[in-house]
Design goal:
alpha/beta; 7 helices; 4-stranded parallel beta sheet; 247 residues; 3-stranded parallel beta sheet; 29% helix; single chain
C-alpha cells in the first residue's frame, strides 16, 4: 500500500514539509521518490541555474537548467523556492537540484549527506507539483554509498549525471564508470544526459546525450576551438575545487 505524505509537524512549517506534500517516500531513507521522466524531445543544451538568468540566453523552451554548480549559487532556491518557480517554467526542463554529497574518510557526516539528498528530492517533488518538467539527477558516489545515492528514484526514463571533478585522475574516472554501471543496473534508464566530459573508460549500451559543462564552455570561448587540448587541461586543473562533490 502506497502512503502519500501529508504531515506538518512544526510551527509555521519551519521544516518546509509543504514541499513534500503528497510525496511517496522511499521506505529506508524516507526521501521523496522522484518519478521517471519521459520526454517527447530532448533539450538542445543544458545551462546552469546561475546562467539561466542571463539576458544573453535565447530559446528558453529548448534549454534545460541544471544545478551542477557550487551549492552557494542555488541555496536561494531552497530558501525560497516559490520565488523561482515561474522562472524555471520558462525552460524545456530542469535537472533536479544537486546539493553536494561528500563521502569517504574526508567527507561529511552521513547525516549531512542524507540531508542534502533529502533536499534534492524534496525540491524535485515540489517542482513537479508546480508543473515543472523535472529530469532526475543522480550522483555517482563511491561504492560504499550506492545505497543512499541511488535511493528514491523510479526505474526507467531519462536521467542526468555530471562528471565535474571526475575526469582528471584515472582512479576517479574508474570509480565513476563503475558507479555508472551499477546505477544503470539499478535504475534502468533508457537515456542518460551527461553534463561534462565523458570519461574515455565509460562503456555502456545505454543512449548517452552529452552537454558541455559551464567550465567547458568558458574554456572554449577563452582558448578557442583550435586549442581544445589546452582548454581541457585548464578545465581539469579547476576540478579539484569541485572534487568535494561525488556527482
Amino acid at each position: 500500500m502506497i502512503v502519500l505524505y501529508n504531515g506538518c509537524h512544526t510551527s509555521f512549517d519551519v521544516m518546509k514539509e509543504y514541499m513534500i506534500y503528497g510525496a511517496e517516500l522511499d521506505e529506508k531513507y524516507q526521501i521523496p521518490i522522484v518519478p521517471a521522466c519521459s520526454l517527447d524531445y530532448l533539450p538542445e543544451d543544458s545551462i546552469d541555474f546561475g546562467e539561466s538568468f542571463s539576458q544573453k540566453i535565447k530559446g528558453h523552451r529548448k534549454l534545460n537548467v541544471n544545478f551542477y554548480i557550487d551549492d552557494s549559487k542555488f541555496q536561494r532556491l531552497w530558501n525560497n523556492p516559490d520565488k523561482y518557480l515561474e522562472h524555471l517554467k520558462c525552460f524545456h526542463s530542469v535537472c533536479m537540484p544537486d546539493f553536494s554529497i561528500a563521502t569517504g574518510d574526508c567527507g561529511m557526516p552521513f547525516a549531512l549527506n542524507l540531508y542534502n539528498v533529502y533536499r534534492n528530492h524534496a525540491l524535485a517533488h515540489y517542482m513537479l507539483l508546480n508543473g515543472i518538467r523535472v529530469i532526475p539527477s543522480v550522483g555517482i558516489p563511491d561504492k560504499d554509498n550506492y545505497d543512499l545515492c541511488f535511493a528514491g528514484y523510479s526505474k526507467g526514463g531519462v536521467i542526468a549525471v555530471c562528471t565535474n571533478g571526475r575526469v582528471r585522475a584515472k582512479a576517479a574516472r574508474i570509480e565513476f564508470c563503475e558507479g555508472f554501471k551499477v546505477m544503470i543496473d539499478m535504475l534502468q534508464p533508457h537515456t542518460v544526459l551527461i553534463v561534462g566530459k565523458i570519461p574515455d573508460e565509460l562503456n555502456t549500451d545505454v543512449k548517452i546525450v552529452n552537454y558541455k559543462s559551464r567550465n567547458q564552455k568558458v574554456n572554449e570561448e577563452f582558448y578557442g576551438n583550435k586549442n581544445n587540448e589546452i582548454a581541457e587541461k585548464a578545465e581539469t586543473d579547476r576540478e579539484p575545487e569541485e572534487e568535494k562533490r561525488a556527482n
